[in-house]
Every structure is written in C-alpha cells, then in structure tokens.
Amino acid sequence: MKVVGGSASLALARALSSELRADLVDVTFERHPGGFPDGERYVRLLGPVAGDHVVLVQSTWPDPKIVELLLLMDAARDAGARRLTAVVPYFGYGRQDKRFLDGEAVGAKTLAKHIALDADELLTMAVHNPDILHMFPIRAREVSGMPALGRYLKRADVDVLLAPDHGALRHVREAASVSGKPYDHLEKERIDSYTVRITPKKLDVRGKSVAIVDDVISTGGTIATTAKELRTQGARRVLALCIHGLFVGKAAENLKACDEVVATDTVPSAWTKVSVAPEFAAAIRALG
Ligand code: R5P
C-alpha cells in the first residue's frame, strides 16, 4: 500500500501513512514557481505505484484542489496503480445535494461521477447529507471524526457539550459518548448564508465550561451566535470544536467570541489541533 497526498491534505496524508505503516509517495505540485504561468494545476508523482493499492488523500476545497485530485488519480492509474482508494476528508460541494432551482447542477453528484472514473472506493468525513454517498457509482463510506474530538474533549476543561442545532446532534452524541461528558442542543434557524437565529432555550450552563461541537465552521456565524447565548446564560468558558474548519469571511472576528477553537486536519488551518488519521486508518483497514 502507498499513500499519496494532494496539496490540500499533505499533513493528514503523512499522518495516515505513518498510521498504516505505508510509504508516502512524494509529489511535485509546481513545475514553475507558483504553478503554470496561467494558474493551471500541475502534479507529478515522484515514486513508483505500479501494482500498488494507492490511498489518495485530498479534500475537494477550495476548487483548484478538485482539479489536483483528478490529476493525481489519473496519474496514479497511468502509473499502474492496482487499486485506488480516494480519501476525501472534506467533501466540498456536498451542500449542493439536490437541484434547488431548475437548471442547476447537483454539485455533489457531479463530483461523485468524476471521482468514480478512477477511484475504486471513497472514504469521506462529516458530509452535510449522508444521502450523497448513494450518488457515487462506487463504494462510498462516511468515516466519523467525532472519536478524535471526543478524545480531545476527555482531557479538556469542559463540563458539557452543546450541539448548535438539531443537525449536529448525531455528531455531539458520539463525541459525548467518547469523552464521557453530558450534552445538550439548541435549535438554529438559518436566515441567510451569513446569519443564523438561535431559538432561546434555558440551559444548565451557569459557571460551566461549554464546548460547542459542530461538523463545520464556515463563517463562524453559528458559533458566535451560540457563544453569545451561552455567555448570556452564565457560561464560564466557551470552546468551539469542529471537524472541518473552513474559516471564511469574518470567521476570525466571529471566533473571538470563544476562549478556544479546535479543528481537525481535514482542512489544515491555524486552529488544527486534532488529527483524524487514526479514524481513516481504521476505515481503510476495514475495507479489506
Ligand atoms: C450547518 O448545517 C452546519 O452544521 C454548520 O453549523 C454551518 O455550516 C456553520 O456555518 P457558519 O460557520 O457559517 O455559521
């Protein structure tokens, strides 16, 4: 088995290769300084993969990383890879899981179709809607990253976990069971892409350290609104934990509402403190 990392997921690929005790194949991404002069992506595998089971790790965000994923899969196949497992830690385009308006592309299906051209199977994590896994014409599995956050929470100064909305409940429940800490949830209404409204609910958080656990932090609007509500109700400390930290727009400003922010390495950032490599390694071993 060989592990190949795209430039969106190099640290995770390295950690995964060490978990799996498999060689990491070096890749060159930039033929000219900064890529091709016109901005096109470039990849070159620097080690042999002929006859190997290749585990290719690359999140599909932001957009140029999608092209890199397709180039890497094709390069691995052309170089004779026997089997190709695509590990897409963060599956960008997962939110376009249906045609909201006539004429739209169903982005999740578009990506699924193209990944399946070269991959034999796909592993991903904390997708917006697990139903999109059925859009892949190959075996596709969602791996949970919550045990990784749960392990972090077990050691942290945290009294209670909180899901900011009903959708995050399945994640928080799992983090709670691993960390052995209780959990609660709020109800959130999304007004637009940048604004959310939290339905007031009396929580037992006075004097407590509360960890908000979500699948994604994007603009940080959900976290900021939830943290404000927790402070109003007397929380002593507020942490925000997520699997995918995208941190776009005013996220850095919004996150000031928290005492600590923790994200995993599905999307590398200054807030990445937890690796989900053990979770993906276990899932790869279970593929058989
Ligand atoms: C929503 O369904 C997700 O679970 C997250 O709560 C949401 O994507 C976070 O977005 P933002 O950080 O922009 O509020």
Description of the molecule:
The chain is an alpha/beta fold and 288 residues long. Helices cover 29% and strands 25% of the residues. The protein has eight helices and 16 strands. It has helices spanning 10-20, 64-78, 107-115, 146-155, 169-179, 221-232, 251-254, 277-287; strands spanning 2-5, 23-25, 27-28, 44-45, 53-57, 83-88, 121-125, 139-143, 160-163, 183-185, 187-190, 196-199, 209-217, 237-245, 260-264, 272-274. A six-stranded parallel beta sheet has the order 2-1-5-6-7-8, sandwiched between helices. The chain is globular and about 60 Å long. The model has no long low-confidence stretch (mean pLDDT 95). Residues 164, 167-168, 196, 214-222 line the site of ribose-5-phosphate. Ribose-5-phosphate (R5P) binds next to strand 13 and helix 6.
Structural descriptors:
288 residues; alpha/beta; six-stranded parallel β-sheet; 16 strands; 29% helix; binds ribose-5-phosphate
